[in-house]
Amino acid sequence: MTDTTRRVTRALLSVSDKTGLIEFAKALAGHGVELVSTGGTAKAIAAAGLKVKDVSELTGFPEMMDGRVKTLHPKVHGGLLAIRDNKEHAEAMTSHGIAPIDLLVVNLYPFEATVDKGAGYEDCIENIDIGGPAMIRAAAKNHDDVAVIVEAQDYQAVLDELAANKGATTLSLRRRLAAKAYARTAAYDAAISNWFAAQLKDNAPDFRAVGGRLIQSLRYGENPHQTAAFYATPDKRPGVSTARQLQGKELSYNNINDTDAAYECIGEFDPKRTAACVIVKHANPCGVAEGPDLVTAYRRALACDSTSAFGGIIAVNRTLDAEAARAIIGIFTEVIIAPDATEEAIAIIGGKKNLRLLLAGGLPDPRTIGLTAKTVAGGLLVQSRDNAVVEDMDIKVATKRAPTDAEMRDLKFAFRVAKHVKSNTIIYAKDLATVGIGAGQMSRVDSARIAARKALDAATELNLAEPLTKGSVVASDAFFPFADGMLACIEAGATAVIQPGGSMRDEEVIKAADDHGIAMVFTGTRHFRH
């Protein structure tokens, strides 16, 4: 590629976000660049004492229809699209009085921000930019001759080139800016199309677009030979994508994935009702507990599986305090995420320089609707978020014995956790804490046995006479297809069971529970998580 330069003689600026605009316009003027602008942008530039030509002077037409029509004109698009070295294009420009536009600066109407603030339908429609994307795409297509800027952070790169190349830009920069421009309009259109689908309650539109803004380039993906990056979508859900990192090493791909899993799980626990802590390893909770305060919740969650917790991710549902912070730094931890933290807690965590501390500013609402997506070979699987909450379910007693109040409290707790553990899932819980977790097994019986084995190991470490599964309750994310899985749970000491129900052999499972004096309830809702 020959890195040809193109001198900038005329720039068209039309921006909704005017951050850095005046400084940039002054610098362009200093390079002898003629400034052309629209509406409020032109007024802002003129108010700064700079000479600026309104786009209506360029086109010979006034802005009309409440500003909907102002740049959709041959004198604008001809100036952007004309190939400078093409004789026919040059002749057309001359015969029709079209002047070249060598630099386009456009950031789009704030559609995403308008939706975020809960604006009404008509306001959202009015914030769909038409002329902006058209100009951006035209300039980007003709990047051999035209530079295009779609956000203020690229102003300096262009100014540096103008300074280094006597008022010209290089082809390499113009190509990078063009690629970014198309990505920006793609993400913008994705936000609009997904908003429309939501308004129409269309769960399967003919085309589905996903767009995002780069948060962070990552050193690698799940493994060192994989490349990766982290993007923010228009879904402003409190969590790792919105969190402020106060300290610690750069987050890795696995850190981000695991932290998201931890914070989504902790969102199930209302901080007004209880303090809660979730410890995650490899995207699965390895300990979850409620408590009167965060330090108690943390210690009870840690007791479930302290071995797996080493190098894990910790999420809490209240402002991280000093006592909890001191307890947490007692073992190696990768990330702590909380809605907020006290200054004392921040100082305590600061003693562990590599420990990442993230403050999300709020908790994700487990009931909020939304979309999740994952890729498959040649395809994209999109579904609504699992926003089912156990408190909203019509729980029915299936056995002769109903759960006691204490058992029902623990059953709901266990089912709340099961929603966030990879299938097949078995959760043993006692006194609002997990005491055994079986995750991701091909057989539900194996999940039950693994969770019980974990509880035995924890009992040995804690010097307990018997594992805490004795007298516990158990949750299954899906129905028991046979009685064997439930019988394995009973053998481990469970006295009550919560499961969705709906198996062809429900009667067989119910009979087995009755034969052992076990209470069992059906939720009617499954929580598969793959």
Based on the model shown, name its key terms.
23 strands, six-stranded mixed sheet, alpha/beta, elongated, 530 residues, single chain
What does this molecule look like?
- The protein is an alpha/beta fold.
- It is 37% helix and 20% strand.
- It has 19 helices and 23 strands.
- The strands form 6 sheets. Strands 10-15-14-13-11-12 form a 6-stranded mixed beta sheet, sandwiched between helices. Strands 18-23-22-21-19-20 form a 6-stranded mixed beta sheet, with helices on both faces.
- Helix 19 links the parallel strand 22 and strand 23.
- Helix 4 packs parallel to helix 8, helix 12 runs parallel beside helix 14 and helix 14 runs parallel beside helix 15.
- The protein is elongated and about 95 Å long.
- The model has no long low-confidence stretch (mean pLDDT 93).
Strand content: 15-25%
Count of individual helical segments: 19
Mean pLDDT: 93
Give the neighbour order of strands across the main sheet. 10-15-14-13-11-12
How far apart lie the N and C ends? Answer: 46 Å
User: In percent, how helical is the residue content?
Assistant: 25-40%
Number of strands: 23
What is Rg?
30 Å
Write the layout of secondary structure elements.
Blueprint lengths: L4 E3 L2 E6 L5 H10 L3 E4 L1 H9 L5 E2 H5 L14 H8 L5 H9 L7 E5 L3 H6 L4 H6 L4 H11 L5 E3 L5 H10 L3 E3 H29 L13 E6 L9 E5 L11 E4 L5 H14 L8 E7 L2 E8 L2 H11 L1 H4 L2 E5 L5 H7 L4 E6 L4 H7 L6 E4 L11 E6 L2 E6 L11 E2 L7 H14 L7 E4 L4 E5 L5 H18 L11 E4 L6 H10 L3 E4 L6 H10 L3 E4 L8
Parallel strand pairs: 2-3, 2-5, 3-4, 5-6, 13-14, 14-15, 21-22, 22-23
Antiparallel strand pairs: 1-7, 8-9, 10-15, 11-12, 11-13, 16-17, 18-23, 19-20, 19-21
Helix pairs in contact: 4-8, 8-10, 12-14, 14-15, 17-18, 18-19
